């Protein structure tokens, strides 16, 4: 193996199994990679060793991949009693006689180990991150995919001891459903306004009875559940709603999360687009918004090349956001507003509004005309794809851009000095599930870095790597906007840029708030039941 690689904190020494206290001796193979599935107090997990450099611990020095080493570990592990008895493959060593890859891939989908060296697919196939091995596992590029049907198949409702419970057959345990939660989520006309769907009672006051006196169920897994409280009040619930309250399906429906379709320059062969006439219907609008959610952008083709038609299109999605640039904009490159967008200069890939606490969710651009000149091609870059590449290539750089806050500013116009309420990192993640939710990247508008100089140096190194990925032509989709084409893109994901140009261009467009965009997506893409469950219930 050329050079010695180290992966810091690959495994915490306190969690290494004691079976390695007496490692195999005299096993040397400096160009080998061993993947070891071993028993720990918390179950069976996959570990990785490359020679003796990537797996250092006080408990053992190194593990080779020879037959003697394999037999030694098998013998040691045969005396252990792993928690997950159903797992029969206790040891599985795979040997690679060539140099270890700089970014080793996960061997099996079901063997979690520290994700600094893992593959992206591990995040999409592993049900639970290995927090006990690496606290940084909470941050990752994409939502993990979960089959909501299988997640609840082992659960059923149980009424015993005067309490409604959810029993999990896999974990062999039950969880009590609090009476306070049940009354708080009652959907009857006394407890919730049927017109506004707003709650009409306050269980926090203590005057509302929350003691369950009886539960009637048609079925433990489906059908209606009727709960009677000690004051005689009755509430009805869906068994599936109770069992799937915390499922990925409900969470995704609530926040409008969909499986992301990452892309590179190859998107040019089949870019997402819809016809203007189609988006006049709810079905066409649902397809437009679904494409924006999945790809991060979509082009509306064959529409009138007028500001009026463009403004009407934006208003059909949501209210146009008003900023210090105004609401709907219609401009040329005359520097009326002090911003590089109002020039004819080259623009690097960037997201807009990094100087706002909440940047716009959707941006629309429509080139109405370009006369007496050339150039001005537009570029789009999938920020989530670039972040995913960084995640796989350099986990430390990814984490640095996920943790270190950066300020931004808009102060070129007289009487304006805008900064966000706090410093935000470049890569922002869902606080509950840890997936990447927003990229904030604008070198021109970047202000201070909220860190000491030793961390600032790390930030620059990480930002330089991310910038190279964003600037890689293989990651950029270049095209020429034409009159009659309106580009709509997710400003939290897709970075846009522009070539310099000559002549006179007239552009129009506007911003739509993130919440308004997601609301319109949900209303056009979710059924009534999914909307109700993911909106009101707690």
TrEMBL record:
Organism field: Cercospora zeae-maydis SCOH1-5
InterPro entries xrefs: AlphaKG_dependent_hydroxylases, GBBH-like_N, GBBH-like_N_sf, TauD-like_sf, TauD/TfdA-like, Trimethyllysine_dOase
Domain TauD/TfdA-like: 273-511
Protein name: Trimethyllysine dioxygenase
GO process annotations (BP): carnitine biosynthetic process
CDD domains: CAS_like
Kinase recorded as keyword: no
UniProt pathway: Amine and polyamine biosynthesis; carnitine biosynthesis
Upper taxonomic lineage: Eukaryota, Fungi, Dikarya, Ascomycota, Pezizomycotina
Its EC number(s): 1.14.11.8
Any one GO MF annotation of this record: iron ion binding
Family per record: Belongs to the gamma-BBH/TMLD family.
Domain of life from the UniProt record: Eukaryota
Family matches, as Pfam families: GBBH-like_N (PF06155), TauD (PF02668)
Keyword Transmembrane in record: no
């Amino acid at each position: 193996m050329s050079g010695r690689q180290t992966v810091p904190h690959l495994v915490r020494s306190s969690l290494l199994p004691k079976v390695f206290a007496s490692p195999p001796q005299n096993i040397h193979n400096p160009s080998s990679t061993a993947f070891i599935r071993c028993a720990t107090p918390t179950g069976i997990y996959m570990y990785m060793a490359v020679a003796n450099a990537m797996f250092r611990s006080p408990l053992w020095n190194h593990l080779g991949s020879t037959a003697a080493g394999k037999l030694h570990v098998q013998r040691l592990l045969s005396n252990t009693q792993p928690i997950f008895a159903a797992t029969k493959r206790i040891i599985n060593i795979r040997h690679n006689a060539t140099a270890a890859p700089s970014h080793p891939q996960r061997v099996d989908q079901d063997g979690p180990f520290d994700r600094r060296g893992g593959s992206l697919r591990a995040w999409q196939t592993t049900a639970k991150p290995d927090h006990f091995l690496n606290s940084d596992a909470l941050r990752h590029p994409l939502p993990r995919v979960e089959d909501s049907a299988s997640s609840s198949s082992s659960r059923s409702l149980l009424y015993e001891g005067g309490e409604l419970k959810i029993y999990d057959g896999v974990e062999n345990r039950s969880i009590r459903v609090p009476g306070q939660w049940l009354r708080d989520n009652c959907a009857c006309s006394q407890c919730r306004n049927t017109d506004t769907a707003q709650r009409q009672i306050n269980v926090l006051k203590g005057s509302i009875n929350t003691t369950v006196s009886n539960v009637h169920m048609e079925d433990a897994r489906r059908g209606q559940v009727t709960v009677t409280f000690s004051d005689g009040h009755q509430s009805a619930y869906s068994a599936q709603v109770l069992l799937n309250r915390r499922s990925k399906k409900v969470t995704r429906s609530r926040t409008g999360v969909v499986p992301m379709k990452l892309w590179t320059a190859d998107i040019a062969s089949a870019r997402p687009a819809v016809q203007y006439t189609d988006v006049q219907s709810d079905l066409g609008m649902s397809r437009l918004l679904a494409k924006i959610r999945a790809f991060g952008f979509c082009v509306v083709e064959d529409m009138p090349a007028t500001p009026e038609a463009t403004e009407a299109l934006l208003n059909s999605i949501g209210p146009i956001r008003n900023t210090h640039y105004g609401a709907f904009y219609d401009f040329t490159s005359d520097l009326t507003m002090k911003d590089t967008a109002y020039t004819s200069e080259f623009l690097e890939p960037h997201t807009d509004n990094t100087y706002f606490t909440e940047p716009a969710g959707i941006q629309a651009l429509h080139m109405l005309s370009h006369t007496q000149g050339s150039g001005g091609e537009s570029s789009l870059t999938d920020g989530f794809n670039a972040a995913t590449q960084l995640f796989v290539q350099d986990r430390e750089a990814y984490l640095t851009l996920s943790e270190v806050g950066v300020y931004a500013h808009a102060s070129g116009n007289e009487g304006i000095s805008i900064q966000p309420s706090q410093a935000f990192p470049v890569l922002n993640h869902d606080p509950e599930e840890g997936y990447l939710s927003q990229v904030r990247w604008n070198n021109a508008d970047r202000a201070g870095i909220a860190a000491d100089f030793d961390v600032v140096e790390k930030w620059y190194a990480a930002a330089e790597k991310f910038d190279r990925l964003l600037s890689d032509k293989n990651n950029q989709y270049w095209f020429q906007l034409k009159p009659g084409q309106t580009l709509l893109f997710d400003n939290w994901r897709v970075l846009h840029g522009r070539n310099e140009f000559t002549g006179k261009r007239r552009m129009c467009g506007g911003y739509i708030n993130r919440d308004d965009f997601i609301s319109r997506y949900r209303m056009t893409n979710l059924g009534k039941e999914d909307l109700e469950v993911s909106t009101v219930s707690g």
